[in-house]
Each structure stands twice: as structure tokens, then as C-alpha cells.
Design brief:
Blueprint (H helix, E strand, L loop, with lengths): L1 H11 L7 H8 L3 H15 L5 H11 L1 H11 L3 E7 L4 H12 L3 H9 L3 E7 L1 H13 L3 E4 L1
Antiparallel strand pairs: 1-2, 1-3
Helix pairs in contact: 4-5, 6-7
Length: 143
């Protein structure tokens, strides 16, 4: 089935005559050779094959809107403690319970702000942890 789609796709693409020989040579190359060709072109021309894809949304959105879109698409968050507050012992216990770390490791995170309590957690879990630590008086944020 993939071969049929490939054949259909090849038939639909019209190659200008001036590029015909280049396209035919590229079609004859192995994946490894194509990868080497891309690297050579990137180095020789001072470009990156991935750059246009990453730059296009930022350029199209412009200014502050691009930053807002980035936050909306974020799927994993880090919970960072900036200040343990007055209930430091309770905060250490909560960090220990949430992370599964030992008492010493949890205390190090709390004692040395900013300390990352959890990394790469989903939004809901991060919000729950932030609110739990804030209830104990800690200054916590999601990044």
C-alpha cells in the first residue's frame, strides 16, 4: 500500500526540465547517501534543513502572540520551588512524598532555591503539586 502511495505521489509531481537530471540522480541514491548530501549542502550553504520549519511559526505569529502559542502547546511542566516559606519542614515532607526522594535529597531541593521539585509532569499534576506546596506557604511556580 505504501508503494502505491509513493507511485501516485511521484506521478503527481511535475519536475521542471532544468531539474530533471538532478531529481533522477537523487532518486537513485540510498538513504545514507542522501543524508550525506544534506550534510554537505548544509555545511556548504551555511543553512540547516530543520531551521525553516522551526522559524516559520514564530515569524508568522509575530511578537507576543508567538510566545502565547508556545505556552498553549506546552505539554510538560517543571515545578520549581523559589522559597519554602515558614513551614519548611512541612514543605520538605511534601516534596519527599511527591518525589519519592529520601529526606536528605528533598531537604536539599527545599534548602537551595530555586529547586526543581518535579520535571516533565503533565499540567494537571503540576498544578496540583503547586497548589499543595502553596497551601503550606511555599513560593512555587510551574515552568
Amino acid at each position: 500500500m505504501a508503494e502505491e502511495q509513493e507511485a501516485t505521489q511521484q506521478e503527481q509531481v511535475e519536475v521542471p526540465e532544468k531539474f530533471q537530471d538532478i531529481v533522477e540522480r537523487v532518486e537513485q541514491m540510498s538513504v545514507l547517501e542522501l543524508s550525506e548530501l544534506v550534510k554537505v549542502l548544509e555545511d556548504r550553504l551555511g543553512v540547516s534543513a530543520a531551521a525553516p520549519v522551526a522559524a516559520a511559526p514564530a515569524a508568522a505569529g509575530g511578537g507576543e502572540e508567538a510566545g502565547g502559542e508556545e505556552e498553549a502547546e506546552q505539554t510538560s511542566f517543571d515545578v520549581v520551588i523559589n522559597d519554602p516559606g515558614s513551614s519548611k519542614i512541612q514543605v520538605v515532607k511534601a516534596v519527599k512524598a511527591e518525589t519519592g526522594l529520601g529526606l536528605k535529597e528533598a531537604k536539599e531541593i527545599v534548602d537551595n532555591p530555586p529547586g526543581t521539585v518535579k520535571e516533565g509532569v503533565d499540567k494537571e499534576s503540576a498544578q496540583e503539586l503547586v497548589s499543595q506546596l502553596q497551601e503550606l506557604g511555599a513560593d512555587v511556580e510551574m515552568k
